[in-house]
Amino acid sequence: MKKQALLLVGSAHQPRSTSQSLGEYLLERLAKGGLDTETLFLHRALRSEETTEELLAAVDRADPVILAFPLYVDTLPYLVTRTLELLAAHRQDRDLPGGQRLLVIVNCGFPEAAHNAVALEICRRFARETGFTWAGGLALGGGGAINGRPLSQVQGLARNVIRALDMTAEALLRGEAAPPAAVALMERPMIPAWLYIRIGHRLWKRQARKYGTSGRLMARPFVPS
Amino acid sequence: MKAVLLDGSRHGDSSSQLVRPAIATELKAHGWSLQPFTLRELEIHHCWGCFGCWVQTPGRCLINDVARDIAAAVINSDLVIHLTPVTFGGYSSELKKALDRMICLVSPFFTKIGGEIHHKPRYERFPYLLGIGTVEQADEELKRIFTKLVHRNAINMHAPAYAADVICTADGPEAVQLRVRSLIRAVEVEQ
Questions:
Q1: In b/e form, how buried is each residue of A111-131, taking b as 16+ CB within 10 angstroms?
Q2: ipTM greater than cut 0.90
Q3: What whole-number distance in Å separates Cα of residue A58 and Cα of residue A166?
Q4: Is B145 within 8 Å of A218 when comparing Cβ atoms?
Q5: d(CA A167, CA A162)
Q6: Which of B109, B112, B117, B156 is the best mutation test for A, with the most CBs of A within 10 A?
Q7: B189 pLDDT above the threshold of 90
Q8: Is the peptide bond before B36 cis (omega within 30 degrees of 0)?
Q9: Distance from CA of residue A205 to its chain's centroid?
Q10: Are B110 and A221 in contact (CB < 8 Å)?
Q11: pTM score of the predicted model
Q12: Which of A188, B15, B16, B154 could form a disulfide linkage to B162, CB 3.0–4.6 angstroms apart?
C-alpha cells in the first residue's frame, strides 16, 4: 500500500496560520516525492466524536505524521495536547504498524526559536511513549514574519525555512529523520530581533487603530476599581 | 493572602484524590484563602488564536465564558497553583485549555528578560507560581521537562518567584502531604 503523509495543523488561527504554511510546504514536497498526502485541522477534528474517530484512523494509516503547531504559553496549545492524549489512549495495547514516524514543526511569536525547546521535548516523549519513531523537531522563531502566508509568497525572508523544509522532505522520503542541518537552518532568525520587535509593535498599533482601541492596548480590566 | 488553584486533574485521577486535599489543608494551615477551579467541570472554550484580547478588547478575551473569571481571579491573587497529571512532561489538556486563555494578562508588546524576548506585563503585579505535577511512578525525565515548563511559565507570566515539582502519588498520602507542605513553604519564603 502506498504511504500517506498526514499533516495535523494544531493552530485554530483563521483564515490561515503559520503552522499551516510550514506544514503545507513540507507536504507539497513529500507529494512531489511520490507520497499521498492528507491534511487535518485539529480544531475541526476535535469537534465531534465522529471527526475525532476519523482523526485517529487517519493517524493509524499515516507515515510520516507531521504535527505543525504554534507555541502557546511555552508549550503545546490545548488542541495539540488533547490530540496527544487521545492518540496515546487510542494506541495503548494496540498492534501498531511499527516504524510510524512523527515529525514536529513548532513556531513561536518570539524572535528566538529556543522558546520552543520544551514543546519539542514533550512531543519527543510522547513519541517514545506511544510507539512513534521520532523523525525530528523543527523549531522556528519569529513566526509572525510569515503570518500565515504560503512560503512561496515569503520567498527571500523564508529562504532558510524553505531550505530546512526541503532538506527535511528529502530525508523523510529516504526514510530518515530531519537532519541536524535542517534543524539548525530552521532555528536561524528570519530577520534581526530588533527589527522583528519594531515591526511587531507597529502592527499591533495598526490593528488597534482598526478596532478603535488605540491608547488602550495596555488596559487593565481586572484591576478592582 | 489569596491562592488560586487551577486543578487540571482528570476525573478520579491521583492529582485530585491525593494532592488537592493536601494543598487545601496546607494552605489553610498557613493562613491562605483558596479559590479552586476544577477545570474539567467547567465549560471553557479553547483559545482561537485571534489575539482579540490584545487588540480588540485589550486585556479581556473575546470569548465570554468562565475563563474570563479565572483570568480575573489569577491576576488578583498572590499565588496561582497549576495542578496537573504530568502529560508527556507537560500539562493536561484540561489545564492547558485554561492557561491558553490567560494571555490576556500580558501585553502584545515585547520586552527583554534575561536576554530573551518576552511579552511585557499588563499589570503591575503578578502572582507567584507553584506548579505541581503528579505521576504514578517516579520518572526523572518527566520531572525535568515539567519543572522546566513551569520555569518558562514563571518568566512569561511575570511571576516574582516560582516553585515546581513532580509528586509521585505511589509514595502515599503522608509523603504527598510533606512534599506539598515544603513546596508551599518554598513559595512563602520567596514572598
A1: bbbebbbbbbbbbbbbbeebb
A2: yes
A3: 24
A4: no
A5: 9
A6: B117
A7: no
A8: no
A9: 27
A10: no
A11: 0.96
A12: B154
